Amino acid sequence: MRLTDQVLSQCLYDPNTGLEVDPARDFGLSKRKANSRLKELRKALDTEQQLLWANSGPAILIWLQGPDCSGKDGAIRNSLRGLNPQGIRIHDFKKPSAAESKLHFLERYRKQVPTPGRITVFNRTPYEGLVSDFADGYIDSLEAASRLQQLMDFEVELARNNIHLIKIYLHISHDEQKKRLIQRFLDSEKHWKISAADLSGYKNFVATQNNWQQAFSQSSPASSPWYVLPANSKPVRNLLVCSLIAQQLEAMNLQWPQPELPFAIEDLDE
């Protein structure tokens, strides 16, 4: 069902190759086969999620990053489909509001960390406050270094609180981004997705990739690595994301709680 640990390990960020890995890589999976395996995996994931919910101790936090049109929304929708919505939280972090800009850059993320037993996804990550703010000139190199350290400290804090972090970057090619932007123009039902920022993101694609690569090289320790997932193929992308969640749940080796029961079956006959 889920992709093997060997396959997933090939998606770990490697400073020697960076983002030069092939975003069209499919690990030998056709779209049909990837969709079939994803469907079966979601069934198994449903049981694992119930175990997480029942234990009400550990939690999973997924940080999902990627360029415009990389499919963050689609990955969330397809990977978590069918799970118990009571145990799922999705938070979409757009550009900070005027009020949020006056707060510490991590404040709005801290407010949304998962409570015990839940799976939470951040659509866009706290690293925006490092990569984007530095690229846009809102912070200088000294402040960027300070924020990087604060991010690493935040990750340690999450682990200490039994929150298991999965950091994901959806990697697409520039050509694939252009293809998906054109598709949005040709489909009137997708016009609402188009913004002025898409054009800027497309024109600055290479520079933005370089900025993120630099961040990854400084923030991918073995204890909390970045996974760079080839995302040109949507079915493969979805299977990879779902497999990473399943891998984390399996590693927890959760068992059904066996509390002391408050009454006996015989009490029902009284």
Notes on the structure:
- The structure is a single chain.
- The chain is α/β, with parallel strands linked by helices and 270 residues long.
- The chain has a single domain (5-255), classed as 3-Layer(aba) Sandwich (Rossmann fold).
- Helices cover 47% and strands 11% of the residues.
- The protein contains 11 helices and 5 strands; from the N terminus they run H-H-E-H-E-H-H-E-H-H-E-H-H-H-E-H.
- Strands 2-3-1-4-5 form a 5-stranded parallel sheet, sandwiched between helices.
- It is globular and about 75 Å long.
- The mean pLDDT is 94.
- Estimate nothing, just give the exact number of structural domains: 1
Q: How would you sum up the global shape?
A: globular
Helix and strand run: HHEHEHHEHHEHHHEH
Indicate the radius of gyration in whole angstroms: 20 Å
Any key phrases for this structure?
Rossmann fold, alpha/beta, 270 residues, 5-stranded parallel sheet
